[in-house]
């Protein structure tokens, strides 16, 4: 008989995992402590913008394979394999990750676990967490409950694709039995490179992957700083580097840098954890990676200020983009919003447009100005800032946009526009890391 799966925590990761596992043919029960979220999911509504996911959710609700609950008891009675997908946000005022949601899932679930089962952690955690939780489980539930760690690498905007066609799977296990269960569960995915390891290595794979990606982005952004000083062009530099197969072109796009719910908090949590382990020197470079990333935002504000006469007072600024990256409505640690907020604080009249993240941005920063199209955001602007590289912005017609602005000043924070096209349409075009 196939395993029955549960998913604890129905945020980005959990909602995606639950729907996709049902799509693979499993019976899945999702749980969240947020009753309103569960109600929405039951109705087939996603709280997030994720291409393709809502259809999968609705299809599997309709065929009865996917259900949602707020009852830990029901989950415990139903499941053979329980996936833990709760968040591990940055602690307030500290670099470390807050793992209290994980502890609370284990404490709430364990007392009801009377049948044999496997608990599988997917959340991104400080190394050592799995070992600690395994001890906790053994104390509360007993030896019939085992823990495994199975980090998740999905990207927002590609969550379905990354879940159903992962480039690799990592199992941190303490027994052959746990490995066998996980192999069975993921068998419907077909051949996927799989690394079977211990708990700490599995946990570290995720931290290391995100640290590497963040470092790659900050590397090219550090080159952008040097290019600015040397009057060189970082975009051409990046293109030239990308042809070296050892380097590769992905995550080498210079611009406003990284944000989102993962990379910034994960590199900070990684540094904090290394410090606790006495290995802080190994990761001091990540402090620099973080600092380079934050300097890009400051540089963007400086460039915009220069273009409007060294002060934002009495100046109108059109902002294109609020999401931390295109094809997402996520504004967590968004570089774009950060820049918009700073300019607002310096007295600029800011009007923001984003194809998906407008409602989220407005909720978080109600005092900034918002518009429902790129043209409306740019109307009367002394400078237009492209801060998230939505295709809709890349496709903008410089003449059409030029007709509504007050002055044809463009700062391209994502190196997404063709400089020549914009300059020949009479725009004063500036970009990060380019002459
Ligand atoms: C990331 C990891 O990619 C994923 O594996 C992990 O599971 C979660 O964190 P995500 O947060 O969805 O995923 O975003 P990602 O696509 O990685 O982009 C992160 C940020 O880097 C964005 O703000 C993006 O704009 C920025 N970025 C990316 C650059 O500035 N330059 C690049 O070349 C690539």
Please characterize this protein's 3D structure:
The structure is a single chain. The chain has 435 residues and is an alpha/beta fold. The chain folds into two domains: 4-197, Rossmann fold (3-Layer(aba) Sandwich); 212-431, Rossmann fold (3-Layer(aba) Sandwich), CATH 3.40.50. The protein contains 18 helices and 14 strands. It has helices at residues 12-23, 35-42, 53-62, 72-78, 100-109, 129-140, 159-164, 176-186, 199-230, 234-242, 263-276, 284-307, 335-345, 358-364, 374-378, 391-394, 398-404, 419-424, and strands spanning 4-8, 27-31, 66-69, 81-84, 117-121, 145-149, 169-172, 194-197, 316-320, 349-353, 369-370, 383-386, 409-412, 428-431. The strands form three sheets. Strands 3-2-1-4-5-6 form a six-stranded parallel sheet, with helices on both faces. The protein has a six-stranded parallel sheet with strand order 11-10-9-12-13-14. Helix 9 (199-230) packs parallel to helix 12. It is globular, with a radius of gyration of 24 Å. The mean pLDDT is 97. Uridine-5'-diphosphate-xylopyranose binds at residues 153-156, 210, 213, 217, 251-253, 255, 257-260, 262-263, 324-325.
């Amino acid at each position: 008989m196939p395993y029955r799966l549960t998913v604890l925590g129905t945020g980005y990761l959990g909602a995606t995992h639950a729907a996709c596992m049902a799509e693979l043919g499993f019976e899945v029960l999702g749980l969240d402590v947020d009753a309103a979220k569960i109600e929405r999911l039951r109705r087939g509504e996603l709280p997030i913008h994720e291409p393709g996911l809502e259809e999968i959710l609705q299809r599997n609700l309709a065929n009865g394979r996917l259900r949602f609950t707020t009852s830990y008891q029901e989950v415990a009675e139903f499941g053979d394999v329980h996936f833990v997908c709760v968040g591990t946000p940055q602690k307030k005022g500290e670099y470390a990750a807050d793992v209290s949601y994980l502890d609370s899932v284990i404490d709430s679930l364990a007392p009801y676990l009377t049948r044999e089962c496997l608990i599988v952690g997917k959340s991104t955690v400080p190394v050592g967490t799995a070992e600690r939780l395994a001890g906790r489980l053994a104390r509360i539930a007993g030896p019939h409950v085992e823990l495994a760690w199975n980090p998740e690498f999905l990207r927002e905007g590609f969550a379905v694709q990354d879940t159903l066609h992962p480039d690799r799977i990592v199992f941190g296990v303490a027994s052959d039995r746990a490995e066998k269960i996980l192999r069975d569960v993921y068998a419907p995915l077909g051949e996927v490179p799989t690394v079977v390891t211990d708990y700490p290595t599995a946990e570290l794979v995720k931290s290391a992957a995100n640290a590497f990606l963040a470092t790659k982005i900050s590397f090219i952004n550090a080159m952008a700083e040097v290019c600015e000083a040397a009057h060189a062009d970082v975009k051409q530099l990046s293109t030239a580097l990308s042809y070296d197969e050892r380097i590769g072109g992905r995550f080498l796009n210079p611009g406003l840098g990284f944000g989102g719910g993962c990379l910034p908090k994960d590199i900070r949590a990684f540094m904090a954890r290394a410090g606790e382990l006495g290995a802080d020197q190994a990761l001091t470079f990540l402090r620099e990676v973080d600092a380079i990333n934050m300097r890009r935002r400051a540089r963007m504000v400086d460039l915009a200020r220069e273009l409007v006469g060294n002060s934002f007072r009495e100046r109108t600024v059109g902002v294109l983009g609020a999401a931390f990256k295109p094809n997402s409505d996520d504004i967590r640690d968004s570089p774009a919003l950060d820049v918009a907020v700073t300019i607002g604080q310096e007295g600029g009249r800011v009007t923001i447009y984003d194809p998906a993240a407008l409602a989220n941005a407005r909720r978080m920063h109600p005092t900034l100005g918002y518009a429902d199209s790129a043209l409306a955001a740019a109307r009367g602007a002394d400078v237009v800032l492209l801060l998230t590289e939505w295709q809709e912005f890349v496709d903008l017609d410089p003449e059409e946009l030029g007709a509504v602005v007050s002055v044809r000043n463009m700062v391209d924070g994502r190196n997404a526009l063709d400089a020549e096209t914009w300059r020949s349409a009479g725009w004063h075009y500036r970009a990060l890391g380019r002459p």
